[in-house]
Every structure is written in C-alpha cells, then in structure tokens.
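ok so dumb question maybe but i'm new to this and my supervisor (M.) told me to 'just get the structure for Transporter' and walked off. so i did the thing. is this what she meant?? sequence i used:
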Amino acid sequence: MESRKSFGGSFGFVLAAAGSAVGLGNIWRFPYLAAKDGGGLFLLIYLILLLTFGFALLTTEIAIGRKTKQGPLTAYSRICKKWRWLGLLACLIPAIIMPYYSAIGGWVIKYFLAFTTGSYVEAAQDGYFVGFITAQHEPLVYMFLFLMACTAIILLGVNKGIEASSKIIMPALIILIIAIAIYSLAITHTDANGVTRSGMDGLLIYLIPNFEGLTFSHFMSVLVDAMGQLFFSLSVAMGIMVAYGSYVSDKADAVASVNRIEFFDTLVSFLAGMLIIPAVFTFMGSEGLSASGPGLMFISLPKVFESMGTAGIIVGIMFFLMVLFAAVTSAVSIMEAVVSSFMDYFHITRVKAALAEFAIALVFGTIVCLGYNVFYFELPLPTGSTGQVLDVMDYISNSIFMPIISIGTCIMIGWVVGPQVIIDEMEKNGETFSRKYIYIAMIKFIAPVLLFILFLKSSGMISF
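this is what came out, is it supposed to look like this??
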C-alpha cells in the first residue's frame, strides 16, 4: 500500500476543494434556480444557508477526513464502528455519479469543439442536442475522452495530479468566468417585436429580491432549492471532502481553509449567475430563463451565442472551455473519492485503484450514453417527472442517498460521538473556531431537521 500523500499547502487544498465545488451544478443549476426562485431572494437564503447549514456539513467532512487519514469508505468506521454503513454509502454515491458525469463531460467536449471548429451555427439549431445524445457512437467517444483525461490526472497523484492541475485550471476558470460575465452585462439586443433588453436588465432580475406573492409554501420551496444546491456547490455528502480532507496536513489551518472554500464557491456560483442570466434574458427574455439543466447549457445558451454574431463565436469558445475546466475539476474529485476508498480498504496502489474505477465508470458510462437510444425507456420518478438511465442514477444519488448520508452524519457526530470530536480537530493547532456554537446548533438540531425536509421533498413524499 502506498503511503498517504498530503497537499503541498493550504492554498493547493483550497483550490482543489474549490475546483471540486465549482462544477456543472454551479454553472447550469445555480443560475436556473436563482431565476426561478425570485433572484435576490434565492441569493439571500442561499448565502445564509451557506454560512450555517453548508458550513456545518463542509467542516464535518473535512475534519473526518483529516482526523482519520482515510477515504470515505473507511473513514466513518474510524470515527464510530457501528456507523460504518455511512462509509459504504459515501463511496457508493460518487461511484454512481462518475459514469453519468463523464457522459455530460463528453457533451461539453462536443460543444467546445463545435464552437472551435466553426460549427456553432449548427449547434444552435433546434434538434442538434437531441440528435447528438441519441446517436449511438459519437457520445461514447466523447465520454471516453473525458474519462481518460480525469483518470490521467488521478494517476499522477495528489500533488502532481490533483493539486497541480487545480493550480492551473482554477485561476484560468475564474479569469474566463469574470471576462464572460463582464461581456454579458455590456450587451444589448432588440428583438423582432422592437423590445430592447440589456444585460443590466437581466442583472437586476438576478440581484433584486422579488417578494411579490411570497407565501410560506413558496418560501419553503426556495429554502429546499437552496439546500439542494449546497450539496452540489460544496461537494458535500459525496465522500469528496472526506477524501480531500484526508490529504490535508495536520499543520494546516483547517478553519481558514473552510472559510476560503466557502468564499470561492460563493464567488463562482454568483459569477455563473451573473454570466448566464443577463445573457439569456437579453436575447430570449424571461421565457428563456425557464430552461434548466441540459436545456439551459446545450440548447438555450448556444442560441444566445449564435445571436451575438461574430463575438458569439469567441464567447461560446470561452464559455465551453470554462465549463470543461469546471467539469474536469469536479469529475476528478468525484473519481478520487472512490479511488482513495479502494486504496484504503483493499490496500492497493493508486494505479490499480484508478484503473478499477476507470473500468467501472466506463462500463456504466456506456450504459448511460446508450440510455438515449439502445436502452431508452421512460421511468416515472416520485418527483412527478419521467427519466432515462441518467435521470434515474441522478435521482438515486442526489435525491435519496445524499440526504440520507447527511442526516446520518449529523446524528453520528451530533448525538453519538459528540461535536467536540470535530471541534478538537479544527482547533488542534490552536486555531480559533469562531463559529463553534453555530456548528453545534446546526449539527445537532437545525441541520437534521432541514435535511429531513429536503429528503421528503426531493423524494416526492411532500410538495410545497
């Protein structure tokens, strides 16, 4: 078994953790939810939850990883043997996510190449996206390329792979997202009806809270949306932060690292909204903001870029390059959660663990890609929608398993072993854990209740 490596410093860890947090969930889900849930109202609730609810979950997972120096599969049993099942679930979740995340990463490569090779007009046409994902072979090729790139980074290890790539990709990603956001705010467009809209108009929709017609049920819906987004934004409840925490040196300032991860996550999520909402609103109006998920990323935005003319080619290339960077850093963290678990549990080398996870992700990623043609079906989901293979895997991992592991973690830390275990780990070098009492209240009382509500809502048992 290889000796466990550590991140070279706090900065490398923060960039790697932020890179994990900055993924497709930030770029296509955060702006959609912000637009749907009243702009500034969603932002306000999200920020409050980030500093309380999200902070508690993020702190717990990083501390568990650093204290045990284990991947998620074995870390929880080191804290409390009777709760080892949490480790199994924490390893299973990223194993489920990685195949379909690789498929989506392949879609991003396809669109990046479409814009760089001058096929952006075709990419903006109705039916282009559906035609691509329902093709039998092409999605498989792009999924394979994306998975190969992630595996190569994982094989290089913690320092030369994860940390080194994060130090290059994350600054580039932030520069790209700031540049595109500035451009989005500066554009104006007059539609066929003579209505002129600007990026600044879209920014006001994004930033100003809309309390019109606000009811308790609407507030609860926004609250649940913001909580669900935090799972994606902070990469909690997936074993990722446990794995990354296990590579943090005992000498590092864990409190400061958590604060910086929160800052980077909020910054990129906010900028993603500032990039997408003004651009879509300017060219497509309020109706264009109703698209979510793949529809926003691969249908609405290419139409926006095509409408920009020559400048749209450059903006489209920059956008999909940024999305590709975000997808790679997130996918690497998802893969590492499984690889570190295999290394610790089976006592095997990084190469063997990485190749095993590559094979698993390749097999199930192939099934995901074929889920739009050979294995196509429409399965009713408890949320009221229907889904294919990708949607079912996403529902099981995100709506069922992630809330369960978070609730279990809160109970284990809050009531079985006690919050002091985490507090001691955060303060082991004499740091001041300034939000200690907020942490105790959240992990013991507030977070479990909120998570239970989220579980009931996401599983379709209740609605608002």
